[in-house]
Structure formats: structure tokens, C-alpha cells
């Protein structure tokens, strides 16, 4: 998850969906640890906006 957060390639909504799916695959103890690790990362998460217009020659 830290790699996905660090690369900032996903929108915040996509990342939250991925985190939710991962939580569903973990047991309760691991889920609590995952939430602790991700909470601060998500608070400061800023997705990269792909709003540039590229011209092909």
C-alpha cells in the first residue's frame, strides 16, 4: 500500500477502493495495523493531476 500511495498514480477514490479491498482480505489484527500505517499517508495524499495537453507531431 505504501508503494501505491508513494507513486501517486491513482486518484484518491481509486486508492481508497483498493485499500478497502485489501482490508477485506486481512484478519482483524492485520487490518488494525494497516489502518494505522495508511491513516497518516492518506491524510497527506495528493494525487497527480494529468491535465496537460500533449501535441503529437
Question: How would you summarize what this structure contains?
Answer:
The protein is mostly helical. It is built from three helices and no strands.
Could you explain how this protein is built, in words?
- The protein has helices spanning 2-7, 12-24, 28-43.
- It is mainly alpha-helical and 57 residues long.
- The termini are far apart.
- 4% of the residues are buried.
- The mean pLDDT is 79.
What structural keywords apply?
57 residues, 3 helices
Order of helices and strands: HHH
For this entry, what is the oligomeric state of its chains? single chain
Unreliable runs: none
Strand count: 0
Q: What structural class results from the helix and strand content?
A: mainly alpha
Alpha-carbon distance between the two ends? 38 Å
Write the layout of secondary structure elements.
Elements: H1 2-7, H2 12-24, H3 28-43
